[in-house]
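Raw record, unedited: Protein-glutamate methylesterase/protein-glutamine glutaminase
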Amino acid sequence: MAAVTPAAPRGAAPVRPVRVLVVDDSALIRKLLGELLSQDPGIVVVGTASDPFIAREKIKQLNPDVLTLDVEMPRMDGLTFLQNLMRLRPMPVVMLSSLTERGAQVTLDALALGAVDFVAKPKLDIARGLRDYAQLLAEKVKLAAQARVTAMSPVPQDLRDASAPRAIGYRTTDRLLAIGASAGGTEAIRHVLASMPADAPATVISQHIPAAFSTAFAERLDRHSRMTVIEATCDQPLLPGHAYVAPGGRHLRVFRSGARWHCRLGDDDPVRGHRPSVDVMFDSLARCAGANVSAALLTGMGDDGARGLLALRQAGALTLAQDQETSVIWGMPGAAVAMGAAQSVVPLSDVAERLLAEVSAAGG
């Protein structure tokens, strides 16, 4: 259930299309994005800009609802422009990112600064690749227009240098934590893991992210968490004090082998358009771990994870959904709430505490 704008009732004024300003230094990309986005009746491209200085003036003149923004631009890089924008006039921004190691790092920086979402540019034949992404790009732009945008707080320093927090005192290694997210999730997950102690139960994470970005995402989480955060590998045992990020483009499932939990990666078809899919991960946990799981579904577009969270609740797990107030896009958690999958709806700041409180209360 994506948080899309409902159709206007009969006799009511029609819903106003989303007004978009395209910012990119390439004339070809500006033209192509303008054409592709304009094909959607719910979008109007009000203008284009070739650099941040022109974009700044056009934002004042045209008052767009959403910006599409390329990172690599002349005169002022996209990150500096985004930082200034979020400080002076916070507004929804969808980044266009290259599928490279540098592109991954810059995109994660942009999301930390307050960008709502991103679309990865293909490495080759960009024009054709963007045409293939036209529907996804239009969907992300329309959802971004409804996003709750605030300037993000600075990313904290490496928590490994901080004094260790009080141990949570669980008595077995059976407990598992699970987190799923999409749009807005890279920062939401960072926030949750930054609040976890070093001895937290093994945690599995599925975030909708391209394959080229997931390694950088896991490394960033590791720098800002007391837990050890790594990209998951196939048949890897799940250990307390560790968090395992599903690789982009692969499903993550959990299974029991002897006395330990393990993760398994799959290249089977995407589920509801996603691989990794939160539903796939949650479903595997419901089948093999049930009441040993505490799970949270965080911000994101669509409804991936909602059915899996319901399966977990029916299997006896603790299930949480992030609330609308603190979600960038209340699609996935909103869908879970609508179908009764979440036992509690909590602000992002309380997610880690609620997950750990259940672990302590369960004694495991």
